[in-house]
C-alpha cells in the first residue's frame, strides 16, 4: 500500500527490483580441479508465497532489515477479477469436453458420462459432477429418426408390393434399402467422411427414392414372368425394357446434386457431404437393381405350372391377395388407359394444362405466397439469453441481472405444463466471465421438443416479456437453438462518416421497426468504449525533477503491476506481480494520491 511505501521510504520499483534480485537461480561457471570439474550455481529461487515473504527489501548498517512481509500483503492465488458461474442454483465450474478431429462423437460422449458416474462415487458429500448440454443428442435423434424411417420404409415397400405383386418380389426389392445404405457407408469411409448431422439428413432425403429403380425393374421382370417367359428370358427382357429409363433417371438425380459439391466457403463445408451421400447411395442402388435384383428374381415361380392343392384358409388368403392385383388391373384398363388416350388425343390441351400448372407454381413463389427460407426454424432443446452492459460495468451488477433473468425463466417453467408432465427445465447454467464482466449469458437445457409440446420460440418470447427491460443494459437477447447458419433473421447495416448522425438514424430505425408485428429483440451493435483517464505532465513537473517516464511507470506499476518474475511451478505458469492492493485501485481519489 502507499502508506507502507511512504513509511519505509520505498517505491514500487524498489520492491520490484528487490524481489527480482532476491529470487533467482544463477549458474556461475565451473571449477576445474585436478580430479574433476565442479559446477557452481547460486540457488535462491522462490516458488510460493511463504518463500517470497523472506525476501529482503531494505537493510541498514546496524543490521536492521525490512522483508517483503513487512511492507506487502502476499497472496499466492489466481487473478482477482471476479467470475460468477451458477448451475441449477449452485456455484459451479464448467468443463467443456471436446472431441479431437477424427474421433467418434457418440463414443466420446459415452466415455464422458461413464467418467462422471465413476467420479461421482469418489467425490465428498455436497460436491457433484453432472453431464449436461450434450450436443450429441441431436445426432442420436437423427440416427433414431433415420432408423425408424428406414424400418417403416421397408415395411411399407414390402406391404405395398406384396398387395399388388408377389411376396418374393417385394422382399428382394425392399432389400435394396439396406444394401444401398451399406454401400454408401463404405464409400463415405473411403472418402474420409463421417456420420454427422448433414450426412444423416442426406440419408433421410435419399431414403424415399432409393427403391424407385428397383420397383420399376422388379415389376417389369414380374410382368414378363407372368406372360410365361422363362426365368433368364424374363430377367433379360425386364432389364432391357426399363433399364435405360431407370439409368437416365438416376443420372438426372446425380446431376442435380453434383453442383452442391462445388459450393465455396463455409456453406460448401457444411453441405459438401450431402451430394456424396446421395450420389453414392444412388450408384449402389442402381448397381444392385441392374445386376443383383434380376439374379434374385430369376427364381420367381413359373405361373404356368399347376397349383398344388391348398387348405381352405390358404385359398382365402390367396384370393384376398389376388383381389388387390385384379383391382389394380381394372383401374388401369377402365380409368387410367382411357385417361391417357384422351390426353394424347387432345395433346395441345394437355400441353397447355401442364404449362398453366407450371406458371401457377412459379407465381405462388414469385408472389410470396410460398415463402423461401434457407434455414427453417428448428424446435431445439435449449434456450440462451445474453445480457450486455456498457464496458466497465462491474461483474456484480451483471451477475444481479443474470440472476433476475434466470429466476424469470424458472417462473415460466413453473407455469408451463409439458406433454409428459415432467419439469420443463433439465439444467440451467449462467455465467459472467472475469475477462468481460459487463456481459453474461444463461443456457437452459429443456425437455426434448416431442415431450414438452411447447415450441422453444414461444418460450423465448415469453422469457423476454417476463424479464422486461433491465436498467442500464445495452442489449438483451433471447433465442432458441439454431441449426446451420446462425444470426438474426433481419440485419440492417448503416454506414456514414458522422457517428452522431449514425446513432440518431439507428434510434429512428429501431423505433420504426418496433411498430411492426412480429419484430422483437431490436438492438444495435454500437458500443461506446470504456471511460478513460488520460494523464499528462504539467509544465512545473520538470522543475520538480519529474519526467513523463517516471509518472507513467508509477501508474503502470501501481495499477497493472510490474512483473518481477515468471517461473514454472509444476504444470502452472506463475507470474509474480507487485502493485497496489485492490482497495487502493477502486477510486479516483486513491489514484490522485499516487
Write the layout of secondary structure elements.
Layout: H1 2-8, H2 12-21, E1 25-32, E2 37-43, H3 49-52, E3 56-59, E4 65-67, H4 68-71, E5 84-87, E6 90-91, H5 105-122, H6 136-164, H7 167-174, H8 176-190, H9 197-207, H10 212-226, H11 231-257, H12 265-271, H13 273-297, H14 312-345, H15 347-366, E7 382-388, H16 395-415, E8 425-432, E9 439-446, H17 449-452, H18 456-467, E10 475-480, H19 499-513, H20 548-561, E11 562-569, E12 572-578, H21 588-592
Antiparallel strand pairs: 1-2, 3-4, 5-6, 5-8, 7-9, 7-10, 8-9, 11-12
Helix pairs in contact: 6-7, 6-9, 7-13, 8-13, 9-13, 10-11, 10-13, 11-13, 16-18
Commentary on this structure:
By secondary structure, this protein is an alpha+beta fold. It has helices spanning 2-8, 12-21, 49-52, 68-71, 105-122, 136-164, 167-174, 176-190, 197-207, 212-226, 231-257, 265-271, 273-297, 312-345, 347-366, 395-415, 449-452, 456-467, 499-513, 548-561, 588-592; strands spanning 25-32, 37-43, 56-59, 65-67, 84-87, 90-91, 382-388, 425-432, 439-446, 475-480, 562-569, 572-578. Strands 6-5-8-9-7-10 form a 6-stranded antiparallel beta sheet. It has a two-stranded antiparallel sheet with strand order 1-2. Strands 3-4 form a two-stranded antiparallel sheet. Helix 16 (395-415) crosses helix 18. The longest helix is centred in the middle third of the chain and has 34 residues, at 312-345. The mean pLDDT is 86.
Give a quick set of tags describing it.
alpha+beta, 12 strands, elongated, single chain
Put the structure in a nutshell:
The protein is of the alpha+beta class and 594 residues long. It is built from 21 helices and 12 strands.
Amino acid at each position: 500500500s502507499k502508506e507502507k511505501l511512504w513509511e519505509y521510504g520505498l517505491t514500487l520499483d524498489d520492491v520490484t527490483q528487490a524481489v527480482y534480485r532476491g529470487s533467482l537461480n544463477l549458474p556461475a561457471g565451473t571449477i576445474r580441479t585436478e580430479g574433476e570439474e565442479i559446477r557452481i550455481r547460486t540457488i535462491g529461487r522462490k516458488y510460493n508465497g511463504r518463500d517470497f515473504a523472506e525476501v529482503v527489501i531494505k537493510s541498514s548498517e546496524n543490521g536492521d532489515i525490512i522483508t517483503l512481509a513487512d511492507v506487502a500483503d502476499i497472496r499466492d492465488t489466481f487473478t482477482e477479477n471476479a467470475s460468477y458461474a451458477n448451475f441449477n442454483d449452485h456455484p459451479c465450474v464448467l468443463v467443456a469436453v471436446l472431441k479431437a478431429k477424427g474421433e467418434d462423437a457418440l463414443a466420446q460422449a459415452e466415455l464422458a458420462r461413464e467418467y462422471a458416474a465413476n467420479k461421482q462415487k469418489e467425490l465428498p458429500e455436497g460436491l457433484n459432477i453432472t453431464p449436461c448440454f450434450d450436443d450429441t443428442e441431436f445426432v442420436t435423434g437423427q440416427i433414431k429418426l433415420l432408423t425408424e424411417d428406414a424400418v417403416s420404409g421397408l415395411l411399407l415397400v414390402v406391404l405395398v408390393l406384396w398387395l399388388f405383386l408377389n411376396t418374393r418380389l417385394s422382399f428382394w426389392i425392399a432389400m435394396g434399402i439396406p444394401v444401398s445404405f451399406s454401400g454408401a457407408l463404405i464409400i463415405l469411409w473411403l472418402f474420409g467422411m463421417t456420420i454427422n448431422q448433414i450426412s444423416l439428413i442426406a440419408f433421410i432425403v435419399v431414403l424415399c427414392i432409393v427403391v424407385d429403380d428397383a420397383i420399376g425393374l422388379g415389376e417389369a421382370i414380374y410382368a414378363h414372368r407372368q406372360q410365361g417367359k422363362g426365368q433368364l428370358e424374363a430377367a433379360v427382357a425386364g432389364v432391357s425394357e426399363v433399364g435405360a429409363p431407370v439409368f437416365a433417371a438416376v443420372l438426372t438425380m446425380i446431376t442435380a446434386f453434383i453442383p452442391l459439391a462445388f459450393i465455396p466457403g463455409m456453406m460448401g463445408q457444411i453441405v459438401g457431404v450431402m451430394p456424396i451421400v446421395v450420389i453414392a447411395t444412388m450408384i449402389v442402388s442402381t448397381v444392385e437393381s441392374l445386376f443383383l435384383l434380376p439374379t434374385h428374381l430369376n427364381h420367381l415361380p413359373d405361373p404356368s405350372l399347376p397349383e398344388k392343392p391348398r387348405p381352405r384358409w390358404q385359398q382365402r388368403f390367396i384370393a384376398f391377395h389376388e383381389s388387390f392385383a385384379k383391382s389394380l388391373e381394372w383401374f388401369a384398363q377402365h380409368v387410367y388407359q382411357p385417361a391417357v388416350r384422351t390426353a394424347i388425343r387432345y395433346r395441345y390441351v394437355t400441353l397447355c394444362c401442364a404449362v398453366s400448372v407450371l406458371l401457377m407454381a412459379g407465381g405462388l413463389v414469385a408472389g410470396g405466397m410460398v415463402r423461401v427460407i434457407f434455414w427453417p426454424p428448428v424446435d431445439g432443446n435449449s434456450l440462451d439469453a445474453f445480457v450486455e452492459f456498457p464496458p466497465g460495468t462491474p461483474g456484480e451488477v451483471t451477475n444481479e441481472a443474470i440472476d433476475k433473468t434466470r429466476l424469470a425463466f424458472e417462473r415460466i417453467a413453473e407455469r408451463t405444463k409439458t406433454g409428459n408432465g415432467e419439469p420443463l427445465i433439465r439444467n440451467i447454467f449462467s455465467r459472467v466471465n472475469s475477462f468481460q464482466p459487463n456481459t453474461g449469458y444463461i443456457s437452459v437445457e429443456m425437455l426434448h421438443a416431442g415431450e414438452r409440446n411447447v415450441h422453444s420460440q414461444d418460450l423465448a418470447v415469453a422469457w423476454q416479456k417476463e424479464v422486461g427491460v433491465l436498467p442500464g443494459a445495452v442489449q438483451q437477447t433471447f433465442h432458441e437453438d439454431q441449426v446451420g447458419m446462425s444470426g438474426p433473421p433481419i440485419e440492417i447495416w448503416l454506414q456514414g462518416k458522422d457517428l452522431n448522425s449514425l446513432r440518431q438514424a439507428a434510434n429512428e430505425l429501431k423505433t420504426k421497426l418496433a411498430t411492426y408485428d412480429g419484430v422483437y429483440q431490436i438492438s444495435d451493435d454500437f458500443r461506446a468504449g470504456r471511460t478513460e483517464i488520460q494523464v499528462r505532465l504539467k509544465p512545473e513537473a520538470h522543475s520538480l525533477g519529474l519526467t513523463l517516464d517516471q509518472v507513467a511507470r508509477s501508474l503502470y506499476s501501481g495499477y497493472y503491476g510490474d512483473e518481477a518474475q515468471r517461473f514454472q511451478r509444476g504444470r502452472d505458469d506463475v507470474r509474480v506481480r507487485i502493485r497496489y492492493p485492490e482497495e487502493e485501485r477502486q477510486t479516483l481519489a486513491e489514484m490522485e494520491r499516487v
